[in-house]
Amino acid sequence: MGRTLQNTMINLGLQNACDEAIYQLGLDMEELEEIEEDAGLGNGGLGRLAACFLDSMATLGLAAYGYGIRYEYGIFNQKIRDGWQVEEADDWLRHGNPWEKARPEYMLPVHFYGRVEHAATGTKWVDTQVVLALPYDTPVPGYMNNTVNTMRLWSARAPNDFNLRDFNIGDYIQAVLDRNLAENISRVLYPNDNFFEGKELRLKQEYFVVAATLQDIIRRFKASKFGSTDSVRTVFDSFPDQVAIQLNDTHPAMAIPELMRIFMDIEKLPWNKAWDITKRTFAYTNHTVLPEALERWPVDLVEKLLPRHLQIIYEINQRHLDHIASLFPNDVDRLRRMSLIEEGGIKRINMAHLCIVGSHAVNGVAKIHSEIVKTQVFQDFAALEPEKFQNKTNGITPRRWLLLCNPGLAELIAEKIGEDYVRDLSQLTKLHEFVDDDLFIREVAKVKQENKVKFALYLEKEYKVKINSSSMFDVHVKRIHEYKRQLMNCLHIITMYNRIRRDPAKLFVPRTVIIGGKAAPGYHMAKMIIKLINAVGQVVNNDPVVGSKLKVIFLENYRVSLAEKVIPATDLSEQISTAGTEASGTGNMKFMLNGALTIGTMDGANVEMAEEAGEENLFIFGMRVEDVTELDREGYNAQKYYDRLPELKQAIDQIKSGFFSPEEPDLFKDVVNMLFHHDRFKVFADYEAYVKCQEKVSELYLNSKAWTKMVIKNIAAAGKFSSDRTIKEYARDIWHVEPSDLKIPPPNEPRDAVEDKTPNGTAA
């Protein structure tokens, strides 16, 4: 979520008033804003997307709730010591959190372990351990519409009789100390991005948020007029018309068997009725196609922790496979491929398959990704129910990612096309009229230069390096992962360095290369990549021959509040994942909206950015998905590129020989070995095209006017990538609700009309 203060002032239309009031108190608002901690309660793009979606849902007047876990410790703080990443706990609540309100009156029990009893009266899950879920509510204000939605985060609490009720031998002190075991559930965020770690505590977290949330939703449904009660029993027929639940990846997949358990064991609905309601309630968004990221929980673990849920999953699977077998008799291989249970070795539950079978809609997050989902990853399911599969291209909120972080540019745009674009970003197309307006071109360039000077000052303060603010700011910020190919950027840096040294007198377009991002603490290769970037920076930044022509900065502790500083100052945005691996990307959109040009592969949303702006207005290079597939078919041979490309050979030889690590010459042997023998992401295959494309970038940068014209064309084409557009599509195609642009009257004005005559709205 990042910081909340400035976002709240902007959405409430109070920023100028607050700035002025604080100024009159002799204080500086920016200094105040810098005191607030980031709320970093998720990993990379997946967590940030949810935050943008909450902003858009409130701005569109949808009655929507964001549910999650109130982690005591969020994503770790990253320190760089001697070039290595070191993790520190993110104690973000140390000074309290003024934006949250605890709601103990809505506390709910969550059950674990125990066993299943089958009786004539029905099935019961008994002898469980109970953990309480305490909700904390954070307001989510819409933009200038007097709507405030809720983000409800659950915190784990031990019940007061924890360890004291059962056969206790009287060790009261130990029993109280053991309360920590229950409360550990919401202690810390697992810091993996695009990687599945099958730990029991993680499964507990996933079920914890699901069980608390579903009870909350059902309580709210029963309290509304829709939960009409037949004598005692609630009628749930209207449930899917009143409630839509969007599963943000498979992490909350246990919601499917949990809702089935509630309907059958507690509300006594028959299977078919429960299953029909469940399917119509849930929709699933897939966020990655990397096999190592797909959740596959061991059956033994689920049986121990959630025995009733395992039974329900088996029953879902049995009925699912019976259906497949009726359509494709004797096709045992298809049954194996489509089963929710993977046999062979240890039995596992494929959570993506559970989500597909248990949802009425499945979507990818960019056109190319949704195609890959349909034709490759889940092709058997798509063949069965093609109408279930959709695309919803990701977006970003223009409030945080333009108004808040780049007020200079936002103001400039408003002067030309008015202020309405903030709520309807498609209006940015009106900027096309000004592409040849010399004054506007100069003003856009001036705003960018001011942002660069400001960020250069920040860098010089934090990193004690002199930054040439007229150099090209070449920025690569995102989680560190092999598929995102920070290594390819690193090879380009080394190549530029070698070119400068080979011919110091030759014209060279100066660059400040900024790379930032966190590596998962257990991801060895990602940590080696950070060390390599820092080692290369040490050499480059201290070589007098290079001077101010080339600087390399590794941005420590990349997070939302730092993104808000670096993105507006960026000239060149690096989006260079191997085609077919980045589901969408959203950083790419933030850079586009803030006046950077993109160098990128035809991957994720880059494809649609090129479609919107014209491919000639992005620097597109490298293999397409088809080329990658073809290369896989014939076999990728890294050695071939090393032998053919002298500059690549020189760079690799330098890394291998210890040129960048003289005190430990074979420090990077694992990296080099990976690049030659098991590089799944084919860095060498795109190196030549990447370097050539970078030469075109430098050439254009020399012509400031032509560069800025291209920038304006990009900003004018960025309208599609508002999360407002994304959420309108979810609302229309999946949730079946109407966004309302009705501005609710402010609380100080009397409300007219009758409260209960509201249009029927689904709670998403």
From TrEMBL:
Cofactor: pyridoxal 5'-phosphate
Amino acid composition bias (Basic and acidic residues), ranges on this chain: 749-758
Positions carrying N6-(pyridoxal phosphate)lysine: K590
EC number: 2.4.1.1
Assigned keywords, A-Z: Allosteric enzyme, Carbohydrate metabolism, Glycogen metabolism, Glycosyltransferase, Phosphoprotein, Pyridoxal phosphate, Transferase
Enzyme class at the top of the EC tree: transferase
One Gene Ontology cellular component annotation held by this UniProt entry: cytoplasm
Region described as Disordered: 739-764
GO biological process: glycogen catabolic process
PROSITE patterns on file: PHOSPHORYLASE
Pfam families linked: Phosphorylase
Catalytic activity entry: [(1->4)-alpha-D-glucosyl](n) + phosphate = [(1->4)-alpha-D-glucosyl](n-1) + alpha-D-glucose 1-phosphate
Top-level taxon in the UniProt lineage: Eukaryota
GO molecular function: glycogen phosphorylase activity; pyridoxal phosphate binding
Homology family: Belongs to the glycogen phosphorylase family.
NCBIfam families: P_ylase (TIGR02093)
Function according to Swiss-Prot or TrEMBL: Allosteric enzyme that catalyzes the rate-limiting step in glycogen catabolism, the phosphorolytic cleavage of glycogen to produce glucose-1-phosphate, and plays a central role in maintaining cellular and organismal glucose homeostasis.
Subunit structure: Homodimer; enzymatically active. Interacts with PPP1R3B; recruits the phosphatase PP1 which dephosphorylates and inactivates PYGL/glycogen phosphorylase.
Protein name per Swiss-Prot or TrEMBL: Alpha-1,4 glucan phosphorylase
Organism for this UniProt entry: Mesembrinibis cayennensis
Organism lineage: Eukaryota, Metazoa, Chordata, Craniata, Vertebrata
